[in-house]
Amino acid sequence: MSSDTPPARIAPAAAGVEAAAPDTHGGAPDLLGRRSRRALGWGFFASELSVLFRRRRTWAMLAALAAIPILIAVAIRVTDGGDGRGPAFLDRITQNGLFVGMTALVVSIPLFLPLTVGVVAGDSIAGEANTGTLRYLLVSPVGRIRLLVVKYAAAAVFCLTATVTVSLAGILIGIALFPVGPVTLLSGDSVSVGESLLRSLLIAVYVTLGLVGLSAIGLFISTLTDAPVGAMAATVVISIVSQVLGQLSQTEWLHPWLFSYYWLDFADLLRQPIEWSSFGGNALLQLGYVAVFGALAYGRFASKDVLS
Amino acid sequence: MSDFAIETAGLTKRFGKQLAVDGVDLAVPEGSVFGFLGPNGSGKTTTIRMLLGLASATAGDIRVLGQAMPRRLANVLPGVGALIEGPGFYPFLSGAANLRRLDAADGFAPAASRAARVDHALERVGLTHAAGKKVRAYSLGMKQRLGIANALLAPRELIVLDEPTNGLDPQGTREVRHLIRSLASEGTTVFVSSHLLAEIEQMCTHAAVMSGGRLVAQGTLDELRLAGQTRARVLVPAADASRATRILTDLGLPPEPEPAPATPGTQPGGAGLGATSGTRGSANGPLPTPEGHFALPGEGAGGAGVGESVLSAVLPESVAREDVVAALVAGGVRVRGFAVQQASLEDLFVALTGEGFDVVQ
Ligand SMILES: Nc1ncnc2c1ncn2[C@@H]1O[C@H](COP(=O)(O)OP(=O)(O)O)[C@@H](O)[C@H]1O
Ligand SMILES: [Mg+2]
Q1: Where is each ABC transporter domain found (chain B) (predicted)?
Q2: Residue B175: is its pLDDT beyond 90?
Q3: Total domains present in chain A
Q4: Which of A94, A259, A307, B49 could disulfide-pair with B54, CB 3.0 to 4.6 Å?
Q5: B220 and B319 within one domain
Q6: What is the ipTM of this complex?
């Protein structure tokens, strides 16, 4: 009747729990060595990256991104060029495989890259709230600002990874399927294969930079809700709205303030000498977005009641 | 240095119009196993969230481990382990990887001993064999254990466990009880919430009772019991009942009717026992009988036999129980059973909260 049981009837597992207890004192001196000051957070950042990149979802998104240049290259290879219509650089691929990566970036920038970035950034806080881990992170204690910074940094790392994935997969499939040689730039100059690879990297950095503003928006939205899917969808929708507004002549005054304003302007990096103005403008604009939405995220999250 | 691991003054939390926590003054002594008892929705979890800095208080002050919360949060929380409203883990990581992750989040935890501490915590809750399994594949009880292991990742001064036995089988419940006792024996203060009275009664030294967001009682279990009454119960042949009633009344223990039994069907018709209204079945009332409780001979299987009756009276502290028996025997009463019933906390708590508690099993 009573829910308790005399000690004699305790099963082995319970005895194991008890037997383990005295160890704490024996092992305590080693285990007790708490740090007197909080670590800067590199350990937690590493942990965050490992959680991000151990998720099957992350790998599925990267695989999908890598499939874009492969599809493009195979399609062109099979159809032998096509009629010259299509995204920028498409017509150059048959002459030089190194253009596959750039073509794939042009194709990915409007939708596929913002989609994956929206998933990661939108999930950042809301996802933790949803799994119930947010409260445990906070009482561990992680520090709310530290959590935001680490989450944002991880999202930025994902932006770079996603862009490089598209670029690298494009270069590799280009080398496999097409002739490769010195690249003729938009300015008519020709650069070596080595330098053109460097320029590809520069373009990847440029595209990544264009996505960090969106990541900050995603982070902010993620602090508003406990529903990660909602935060992801909202982030992606905002990236589409920004591009649509960028197309309308009625909102021309707004265009330079849209985070997507410089997204497709990386062609300037394919001139000799490099035309840095769009790179600089892009960096400045994105920095502004990071500052504004980072502050909003902080303002919202620092005092938020975590009731998830 | 404060003597209290947790102290609150006028702690209040308002959700819109609803007062979830209303002017709570908690005082949890260091080294105690403190039961935080209350029905579902009485504000236990909300209080715990405020104690740990997850939610801000609408009003009131909080001190945890002698320091103001949430202002000194970064100093306080490293010494606190917690399970809050059930476990929360990444389903796609293994149990051990989850613990490593949460430990890495603790900026004060030394990375060098992480693996050893994770192994140790898993061992303490009996999850060593499932350490490498994805949490997705854990049962509810295993997740609950992992949640407790997380609270044990580092040496703590205070451990807060919000309904730690939810979802556990009786075996797991026992293990948690042992774990809490062993933590207490190491000097850790344990603050454990529950809606199960029996659980609190079995493992706590102190308790507080919440009802509708208010703290309605607080103290050591003995103090709380004193708020109730100790009863003496005597089993006698029905023929001796009136004589026994007279003797008991003379001693200052006037027998009085007991609360009606839970199962009316077992009431014998027309027993005609006057003051001794509680006859058959009264010992099998609606209350759980935790260890050390009342047991009259022969009552376990259906109460007083035919032709017997039970007399029940409040036992004043001034009267020794052996004197009661001696007086009855001297008066010629054939005493067939005698028991002193510690006041049931259940009686007190039902009176305080106006609601029944879920009964274990
Ligand atoms: N996020 C919330 N928003 C609004 N009301 C809440 C919220 N969380 C809890 N409550 C209310 O606060 C009261 C106390 O809840 P809780 O602290 O979870 O109780 P307990 O843990 O004792 O079961 C309940 O009436 C509940 O409805
Ligand atoms: Mg609760």
Answers
A1: 6-237
A2: no
A3: 1
A4: B49
A5: no
A6: 0.82
